[in-house]
Structures are given as C-alpha cells and as structure tokens.
Amino acid sequence: MTDRIFSLAALTVLELSPPDMVEAAARAGYSHVGLRLVPATEQEQHFPLVADADLRRQTQARLRDTGIKVLDLEILRLKPETCVADFEPILAVGAELGGTELLVAGNDPDEARLTERFAALCDLAAGYGIYPHLEFMPWTDVRDLSRAMRVVANADRSNGCVLVDAFHFNRSRSSLDDLAQLAPQRMRYAQLCDVAGPVPADMDEILRQARNERRFPGDGDADLVSLLRGLPPTVPLSLEIPTRQLLEQGVSGEQRARMALEKAMAVLAIV
Fold first, then answer.
1. Which N-terminal stretch is annotated as signal sequence (predicted)?
2. Residues 250-260 pLDDT 10s
3. What pLDDT was estimated at residue 162?
4. In the chain, where does DSSP find H-type helix?
5. 183 has a pLDDT exceeding 60
6. Nearest-5° angle of CA 92, CA 133, CA 90?
7. Which end of the chain has fewer CB within 10 Å, C or N?
8. Angle at 57 between CA 134 and CA 242, to 5 degrees
C-alpha cells in the first residue's frame, strides 16, 4: 500500500482555503491534494486561485513546506458555448501549481461537438503536461461510463482520459464489464467514496447526495472491492467525500480527511 497515492479532494473539505487544505492533508497523512480552480456551482464557497496571486503564493509556500503535491485540477465544463482557448489561463495556473490531471464535465447534448471540444482541450492541455479526464455524472450529458469511453475514444488524443468516480459509477448503473474494456492508460486517477441506499428515482436527489451526502469507503452499499479490482492496481485515488452532516456537527476538515483516509486504506487492504 505504500506506493499508492492518496489525494484529498477539494469537495471533501470545501470550507478550507487551499493553504489550509494543504496543511490538513499533510497532517492527515495524504501525499497529494486536488485544487478547485473553477467552482462547480455558483453557490459553493470558492477561493479564487486563478485570480488571486497572493493566494497562489500562500498555497505554493504551504505545498513547499509540507511536501504535499497537487494531483488534479477542477473543474472545466464543456458547454455548447464553450471556447476552449478561454481555458488557457486556468491551465497555466494549474501547471504552475504542479497539477497534472484535469477534471472535465460534459455539459453539451451534441456529442460530436463535445468530442471535438474535448479533443481541442486535450491539445491545449498537452502543452502544459496536463491530462484531461472526462468525468461521467448521471445529471450531465455524459451520464455513464460507456458514453465517457466513447467520447474519449473518438477524440483520439493520447492524453485524453476517463475519470471513474465510485459515486457516479454506482448511481449511473455503469458496469464492471464496461470498465474492463477501458484501457489502463486512460485512467490516471480515480475518485473514491461510498454511497448508501438504492439509486434514487429523482435526479435532484442524486445530485444532492453527490454534493452533500457521500459515505466514507466501507460505510455504504457500493461494491468498492469489485470496482477497485477493475482499476489499475496502483492508480492514484482522490478521496472525494462531502459529508455535510459531519460538517454541521462541527467535525473539522482535518478530522474528516483523516477519517476518509483511514476508511479508504481499510477497504484497500481487502482488495
């Protein structure tokens, strides 16, 4: 287990500023963090790393002091109106911070256009040594693993990847058979959490659970052992586990990060 990279995802401790997140990750035993350069929603708390040079300097100083590295960068959305060239300043900041993996959401119902834009983003990101990962999410236009695999395959870029998130894998009813067809080089990191209960019929409820109510690995109903066995054996794992109830109970970001890592390691011990 010593060679496994564990990264603390921003959504797990979204209330922490990037420097404080780096410090919490170091104290909790992680080697990496994921940084949210662009907010996922207009409502969420956001720390503007791209716009705030002083915040970037503080973050870089904390990374140097702790030895923590940046794994992934979030979150770029490919929409009908997207101009991929507009993403360049974000990629530049991400590269400056040392991130190599990029989370991408597909929010365009025109799959041909989405595929073309993903290919263009891969081309732009290649200049920064960054690998875009198309993440399938049930409420987006790339709602399951098979669609994500198709877009990435058709984009046909060597740095194009698919991001497997345990929550979305479960809630999209994606299959282990499909996962077995995904080439290992298309998976440079994965997101791990657990999920409780059957798949809700209501998409708004799935979305609420995704952003507020995930479970630590082993505390839910997902078949994480089979999922992890279907991933490359040393693929880095980003622990993305928002638990609003614990936050509201006053459990600190560092405590939640530590709980997530302990639970993840316990599940991996039986894989």
1. none
2. 999 999 999 99
3. 98
4. 18-28, 53-66, 88-96, 111-126, 145-155, 166-171, 176-180, 203-212, 224-229, 244-248, 253-268
5. yes
6. 20
7. N
8. 45
User: Hey, what are 123's tokens?
Assistant: 């081309």
Residue 235 is given by DSSP the state -
pLDDT, residue 44, reads 85
CA pair distance 20, 177, nearest whole angstrom: 40
Measure Cα distances from 85 to 120, 146, 251 in Å.
Answer: 9, 27, 41
Burial of residue 108 (number of CB atoms within 10 Å: 0-12, 13-18, 19+): buried
Contact 177, 169 (CB under 8 A): no
Alpha-carbon span 74 to 116, nearest angstrom: 20
pLDDT tens digits for range 44-83 = 889 999 999 999 999 999 999 999 999 999 999 999 999 9
Q: Using CB atoms within 10 Å of the CB of residue 189, give its burial: 0 to 12 exposed, 13 to 18 middle, 19+ buried.
A: buried
Per-residue pLDDT at 43: 84
* Cβ partners under 8 Å of residue 142, min gap 6: 105, 106, 114, 134, 135, 136, 148, 151
pLDDT of 1 above 50: no
What gap in Å lies between CA 226 and CA 235, rounded to an integer?
15
What is the CA 231 to chain-centroid distance, rounded? 15
- Return phi, psi of residue 82, to 5°: -60, 135
